[in-house]
Amino acid sequence: MTEENKTYSGLFEALSALQDAIEQPKKDASNPMFKSSYVTLDAVIASINTAKRKVGAKIFWHNEPRERVMWTVIDGYGERLEIQGAPIAGDLGNRGTNSAQAEGSAETYARRYSLSMVFGIASDVDDDGNAAPKGQPKTQDKPKNQLNSIFGGVSKSFREKNSFSEEAMYQAISQQFNANINSFYAFNKLSDQNKEAVINWLRAGVN
């Protein structure tokens, strides 16, 4: 049953109704590194607009990049809500693309992540299940894995070289590999192959 004629007392009530009506979009893009899938920005926007029409919420939203951070601005019912979202990763010059494409990719990721956070959409996938091949022990079961120590040193050099906070670094990594940021917070749970891929990418950003 639609609520197209429903009257809301304010922006927060309308936004709450919209969030409740959100249907999780299908993960329609693939991540070959983690053999998983994720939701594209187009699918996130379509899910928001569908829920908005369903509940008759008279709100308008847009994204604004401010000092390398993506904000979501929502207007409606005489009110405005501004929500800070994901940092926009800088062009590190090592993504096999030109600067304009790298900047566009960074903004697309930041918009997708920020909108998903605001409207309650699960746009990423938890790839812990791919942490180790079937029949082999997971990385966290291997004693004294040297890759964990290497990551600590390389990540520190990366942050210092690019003036990144730890949070911004993890955002940049998750953008590069199109995977859930939580996967990289728990670095020791990744497979050795995925650890090496992350470390090599960080090294390229230092050199």
Give a description of the structure.
The protein is an alpha+beta fold and 207 residues long. 46% of the residues lie in helices and 14% in strands. The chain has helices at residues 11-21, 41-55, 99-119, 146-162, 166-177, 181-185, 192-206, and strands spanning 29-31, 36-38, 60-66, 69-76, 79-87. Strands 3-4-5 form a three-stranded antiparallel sheet. A two-stranded antiparallel sheet has the order 1-2. A hairpin with a 2-residue loop joins strand 3 (60-66) and strand 4. The radius of gyration is 19 Å and the shape is elongated. Mean pLDDT is 76; it is low at 126-144.
List keywords for this structure.
two-stranded antiparallel sheet, 46% helix, 207 residues, elongated, alpha+beta
Order of helices and strands: HEEHEEEHHHHH
Distance between the termini: 57 Å
Largest sheet, described in full? 3 strands, antiparallel
Total DSSP E strands? 5
Structural class: alpha+beta
Strand content: 5-15%
**pLDDT < 50 stretches:** 126-144
Strand order, sheet with most strands? 3-4-5
- Tally of individual helices: 7
> Percent helix among the residues?
40-55%
Radius of gyration: 19 Å
- Mass-distribution shape: elongated
Oligomer: single chain
- Mean pLDDT across every amino acid position: 76
